[in-house]
Amino acid sequence: MDSHATSLVCIVCPRGCALDVAREGGSIRVRGHACRRGIGYARTELSDPRRTITTTVPVHGGATRLVPVRSGAPIPRALIGQALRELKALSLAAPVAGGQVVVVSLAGSGISAVATRDVPGLD
Predict the structure, then answer these.
(1) Confidence of residue 1 (pLDDT cuts 50, 70, 90)
(2) In CATH, which of 3.90.1150, 1.10.3470, 3.10.530, 3.90.1570 is domain 54-115?
């Protein structure tokens, strides 16, 4: 590998291939993959890394005090801090439905945050 090489462990499937990734001119070379999905993962990880966010948000008047939420899709890694600050400032009123959108566009990404569990209101 050259001086611009990176080692990654592919997380696309359970195999966990050890990838050697290097930028060569204008392209990205990937070695160590057992399937084509590893190539796509490595290229995305070098050019536009993204992560799915999971956390909890307070619920007022609900059967539980917190509801788990996650991003509807992976968001750019550079926006994670801002997205988490937005979610930290959020509080919801019960009832909350699983799948309910709680933030329309996390950190201006166009990717929503959704509740992943029902929280019924107190009777």
Answers:
(1) very low
(2) 3.10.530
CB neighbour list of residue 51: distance below 8 Å, 6 or more residues apart? 74, 75, 77, 80
CA distance 116 to 55: 10
Q: How far is CA 33 from the centre of its chain?
A: 23
Taking the C-alpha atoms of residue 31 and residue 73, their distance in angstroms, rounded to an integer, is 27
Beta-bridge partners for 9: 18
Assigned token pair, 22: 């290097």
Q: Which tens digits make up the pLDDT trace of 19-76?
A: 999 988 888 899 999 999 999 999 999 889 999 999 999 999 999 999 999 999 999 9
The tokens for 68 are 């788990």
CA gap 63, 86 in Å, rounded: 24
What count of Cα atoms within 13 Å lies in the side-chain half-sphere of residue 38?
Answer: 20
* Residue that has been written with the tokens 């592919």 in this structure: 10
Residues in the chain: 123
